[in-house]
Amino acid sequence: MWYLYLLECRGGNTYAGITNDVLRRYAAHQAGKGARYTRANPPAAILGVQPFTDRSSASRAEYQLKRKTPAHKRLWASNWPWQPETGAVESEEKPETLRRGITTVCKSPTVR
């Protein structure tokens, strides 16, 4: 299973990435061993995590999410909340969404 995740970094900016182990990747970002952006802007929280059945689907969704406005990214995260106590991803999406993957990221409700 692969995951698209959105981090809130110090300063209020966000960072999107993909991984097959969210907690390990988050720890790497916090330790300064993640992406260049998170080395300069350490993450403060995981905002959202969306599961995908394969790396390719997660990568396509990441590309789409990175093209969104900050408001749309946060809206996306609110639909895929991270449960830090359990490490679970909770969503009302149907299992078939995991196979379609990218459709969830591409939906763009009006954000003002």
UniProtKB/TrEMBL annotation:
<dbReference type="Pfam" id="PF01541">
    <property type="entry name" value="GIY-YIG"/>
</dbReference>
<dbReference type="InterPro" id="IPR050190">
    <property type="entry name" value="UPF0213_domain"/>
</dbReference>
<comment type="similarity">
    <text>Belongs to the UPF0213 family.</text>
</comment>
<dbReference type="InterPro" id="IPR000305">
    <property type="entry name" value="GIY-YIG_endonuc"/>
</dbReference>
<protein>
    <submittedName>
        <fullName>GIY-YIG nuclease family protein</fullName>
    </submittedName>
</protein>
<feature type="domain" description="GIY-YIG">
    <location>
        <begin position="1"/>
        <end position="75"/>
    </location>
</feature>
<dbReference type="InterPro" id="IPR035901">
    <property type="entry name" value="GIY-YIG_endonuc_sf"/>
</dbReference>
